[in-house]
Write a structure and sequence with these properties.
Radius of gyration: 35 Å
Strand content: 5-15%
Shape: elongated
Largest sheet: 5 strands, mixed
Order of helices and strands: HHEEHHHHEEEHEEHHHHHHHHEEEE
Distance between the termini: 135 Å
Helix content: 40-55%
């Protein structure tokens, strides 16, 4: 007897159709899930790029090492200190122009180099010619500071004569100093003017050529101007060597570096500078330790290095150093960046407040001749700074991974630096001979970058080195300011107080 199959349930077809539909939906969900994951990753990446762009746009002289001139670029927000100072000026209703106590310049009556007499001209009311009138003396005098009328360059021909002595010997005159053994040459005055304009006044070669031609009529080629730089650098070789020796022997010196376009288009080098209150020296090369060694100052320097947080200055290579002082101005700008990145956090403002307080106390102690900030003023501020760093480290966690391969959150490396190198951050508080900031070095290297000393003039890397030597030698012979007591133009010893005043090197 054959068993009969149960009759087909009409719902089986519907179940199969629904199962196929669910399988297709599962495939679509899986595809959509992959797309969503890809879109989420893209959104996260774009978010990081947006944050980076916003962070880059927020850079200014108050929270980074950018020059103050960049604060006025379109789209840039002024530094917080500019806004704060503007508010302070508005509150004090500060008058425009020169402020009381600030250095100024004024003309004073002195013996004239040339006196030009002026006499009445024309006719008197009686009809007589005033040219025949009797001179009764000077009624009133006026002095005017001016330059002589530019004179065109003159062509000097040096003829070396021969002469026969009574004994019969023939003698030829010697060639004057400064006249090369060539039929045609440019004199030392025009050469010195070309060097002065190119190096010390930062005038590009083409404009220097035009300026010399307009003022003197002398025609100089671009190649000749370049050759003048090398010749002039050779003349100051001994002075540059002495300057480097004096910097290496100083108890405190500032060091800084900046990029500089030198040579063919697209080439970039670094200018390394070493500075004291009186001297400056420059070296052109890369940013690495080899260039620092070649410069020849850090390897023999045994004092305190004032610098930013660039790792090259804190390398174990410099075991000869007595210590470091991290620039408090750089640290303040970095903490300002943290304050803008973490607007709800109190520790960045606390760190800035304590640093500024220590800087002010250091200036006061230095003016009073104290070797250190008094303990009653120093210790509360140092404690406030250390607590701010501790709170910041707890708030900004470290991203796991190799130290030099994983990008950390903004401020984390700054906080770790202040924690591990606390002595190098607050050294100036215990020794007023140490500068709290590296502003002297900043002022030394910034013109090289903003005014483009080398790029407009140096067609290859080599001519840039003479520029650096000449700038250093010129800085050593140039007064850095005026004494705020005797107002005489002197080389400065150190900036004192928060105002731009200078301490005179004279014995007081």
């Amino acid at each position: 007897m054959t068993e009969s199959l149960p009759p087909e349930d009409p719902r089986d077809a519907l179940i199969g159709e629904q199962a196929a539909r669910l399988a297709a939906q599962d495939e679509q969900i899986a595809v959509h899930g992959e797309r969503i994951a890809a879109l989420e990753a893209l959104v996260a990446e774009l978010g990081e790029q947006l944050d980076a762009a916003r962070r880059a746009a927020s850079r200014n002289s108050g929270n980074s090492s950018m020059p103050p001139s960049s604060d006025d670029l379109p789209g840039r927000r002024p530094a917080a200190r500019k806004e704060r100072r503007a508010a302070e000026r508005a509150e004090r209703k500060r008058k425009p122009g020169k402020q009381p106590g600030s250095p100024g310049a004024a003309m004073r009556w002195r013996k004239a180099d040339e006196v030009v007499g002026h006499f009445p001209q024309g006719d008197c009311a009686c009809g007589a010619d005033l040219a025949d009138a009797a001179d009764l003396g000077v009624a009133r005098s006026y002095q005017q500071e001016d330059v002589p009328e530019p004179q065109p360059s003159r062509r000097y021909q040096h003829d070396l004569h021969r002469a026969r002595c009574a004994c019969g010997r023939v003698h030829v005159a010697l060639r004057p100093a400064g006249v090369p053994d060539a039929p045609l040459s440019v004199g030392p005055r025009l050469s010195a003017m070309a060097v002065y304009l190119s190096v010390f006044q930062h005038v590009p070669v083409e404009r220097a050529q035009a300026l010399i031609a307009d003022l003197t009529g002398g025609v100089l080629s671009a190649g000749f101007v370049h050759s003048c730089l090398g010749k002039a650098a050779g003349l100051v070789t001994d002075a540059v060597r002495l300057i480097r020796t004096l910097i290496a022997a100083a108890p405190v010196a500032g060091f800084d570096e900046t990029t500089l376009r030198s040579g063919p288009a697209g080439d970039k080098k670094y200018v390394h500078g070493a500075f004291t209150e009186l001297y400056s020296a420059f070296w052109l090369g890369t940013r690495g330790l080899e260039t620092m060694k070649e410069a020849g100052i850090l390897p023999s320097f045994a004092g305190i290095v004032v610098s930013d947080r660039y790792a090259g200055y804190y390398s174990q290579t410099w075991a000869n150093l007595a210590g470091h002082q991290a620039c408090a101005a750089h640290l303040t700008r970095d903490f300002q960046d943290c304050a803008e990145t973490y607007p709800d956090a109190a520790w960045p403002e606390q760190a800035m407040r304590s640093l500024r307080g220590l800087i002010r106390a250091g200036h006061v102690a230095r003016e009073q001749g104290l070797p250190a900030i008094p303990a009653e003023d120093r210790e509360p501020l140092e404690t406030e700074f250390r607590r701010a760093v501790t709170v910041g480290l707890a708030a900004v966690s470290r991203v796991p991974g190799p130290k030099n391969q994983v990008k950390q959150q903004p401020g984390r490396e700054l906080l770790e630096f202040c924690k591990t190198r606390q002595a190098d951050v607050l050294r100036f508080a215990a020794d007023t001979s140490v500068w709290p900031t590296n502003n002297i070095s900043e002022r030394g290297v910034r013109p090289l970058k903003t005014r483009r000393v080398a790029p407009a003039r140096c067609r290859a890397g080599a001519p840039s080195a003479p520029c650096m030597h000449l700038v250093g030698a010129h800085g050593a012979s140039k007064p850095r300011g005026r004494c705020h007591r005797c107002r005489s133009s002197v080389a400065v010893r150190a900036p004192v107080a928060r105002r731009q005043q200078y301490a005179c090197t004279r014995q007081r």
